[in-house]
Write a structure and sequence with these properties.
There is one protein chain. The chain contains 10 helices and no strands. Helices cover 68% and strands 0% of the residues. The protein is mostly helical. The radius of gyration is 20 Å and the shape is elongated. It has 2 domains: 1-53, Arc Repressor Mutant, subunit A, CATH 1.10.10.60; 55-193, Tetracycline Repressor, domain 2 (Orthogonal Bundle), CATH 1.10.357. It has helices at 9-27, 34-41, 45-48, 55-77, 84-100, 103-111, 118-144, 153-165, 167-170, 179-193.
Amino acid sequence: MARLAGSDGKTTALAILKQSRKLIARHGYAAVSMRMIAEAVGVQAGALYQYHSTKQQLLVSLMRDHMEKLLEAWQKEVNAQDSPAQELVRFVHFHIRYNITRPDEIFIAYMELRALEPEGFKLIEKLRGEYETILKTIISRGMKQGQFDCEDAHVGTMAILAMLTGVNTWYRSGGRLSQSKIQDMYAKMILRSVGCKEPNRRLPT
């Protein structure tokens, strides 16, 4: 069969992304074959090539899908009335909340970058750069307005993203601290790290 029974092409395409994401997050890109993905989806191996000509193209599709959805989700969070401190808190809360609920996507986005070939790497790095620019712009705005005392906006951006993304390596639902508590704690630490004049700043109601 070329498609899932009773499905259309779009349904099959989504199933391919879903199952390949699970398999790669569990076993690693190198260990997963197109045949394994086809079996998980419930189609013949040859049918996958109607959607992705190579396993490399499939990996790029997974990473691109993640980054595009991340960027789109952030745009829905933006509040033009935020001060730099408020926007930074909003970004911290958003990043942790978004990543915690998508462990497979985050694992692949960071751990499988090394598996990308040059063309795919260039595409994904461009999207990652767009996300990094969001945070860098927030920090730069705070520096210009005298609200942040940060020596270098780029270095601050890289340090904060590493700190935030690291939450996925240790956070477990039902643990000692709630997700909202962790978000608040990280927001305070990050405000202090950029030399915020008001480290206890809260999001506007």
